[in-house]
Inverse folding.
């Protein structure tokens, strides 16, 4: 008789647990969807009354154009609850802008979003397959461009975008060449031809910086230019060979 009572009590407990679980599931399924919007609305009201809503978005380190691109992709509305805002989502949206090299996003309570940006700086225009694209100091494409970029050289040749940053850095060391290099062409993935103020200069495969230094002296002296020469050949170490456009011959020049 005792055994039967124990079994019955155990059965009743299981039954009550099953009923309670079923009721909880029903409440969660039918009631919570109606309550949650009310809770969210209440939280938003509390946030507004306590000042914890988005009042300003401060973007630093970006040009006006980049700041506009960043702002358009944020999907943030002033007055939103600042605690509900995901800084990781903002980071992803900002990083998706091609002009952004790196960014830091943080909340400044009670009501501000701070976005610090480091922009990618274009150093040249890559021309490939009839498309012109800006490239940065790592040789990575920023965006296609249809217009001429003032003071940016045009880069040509296979794998030129990868190799160009190194030679552009070398050229930038010499003030006489700054802003005068118009074209940088990677020839057979081995060496460079560059166009300086309309004059083609053939550079060697090795000791490129020494050849560029000689070129800077030539430009500074202004005794060889596009009117007096067809091109300058610096491929032979220690020699400067100038193609005479009128006599159609090569002359050796000491610098």
């Amino acid at each position: 008789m005792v055994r039967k009572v124990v079994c019955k009590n155990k059965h009743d407990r299981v039954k009550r647990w099953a009923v309670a679980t079923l009721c909880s599931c029903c409440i969660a399924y039918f009631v919570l969807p109606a309550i949650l919007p009310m809770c969210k609305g209440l939280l938003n009201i509390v946030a507004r009354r306590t000042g914890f809503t988005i009042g300003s978005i401060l973007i630093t380190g970006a040009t006006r154009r980049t700041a506009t691109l960043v702002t358009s992709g944020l999907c943030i509305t002033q007055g939103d609850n600042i605690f509900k805002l995901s800084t990781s989502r903002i980071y992803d949206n900002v990083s998706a802008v091609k002009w952004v090299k790196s960014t830091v996003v943080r909340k400044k309570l009670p009501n501000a979003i701070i976005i610090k940006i480091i922009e990618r700086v274009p150093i040249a225009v890559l021309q490939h397959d009839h498309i012109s694209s800006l490239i940065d100091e790592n040789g990575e494409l920023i965006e296609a461009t249809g217009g001429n970029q003032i003071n940016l050289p045009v880069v040509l040749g296979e794998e030129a975008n990868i190799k160009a940053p190194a030679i552009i850095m070398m050229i930038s060391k010499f003030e006489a060449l700054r802003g005068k290099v118009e074209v940088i062409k990677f020839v057979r993935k081995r060496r460079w031809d560059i166009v300086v103020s309309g004059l083609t200069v053939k550079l060697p495969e090795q000791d490129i910086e020494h050849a560029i230094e000689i070129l800077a002296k030539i430009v500074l002296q202004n005794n060889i230019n596009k009117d007096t020469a067809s091109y300058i050949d610096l491929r032979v170490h220690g020699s400067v060979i100038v193609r005479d456009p009128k006599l159609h011959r090569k002359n050796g020049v000491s610098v």
Q: What stands out?
A: DSSP finds six helices and 13 strands in the chain.
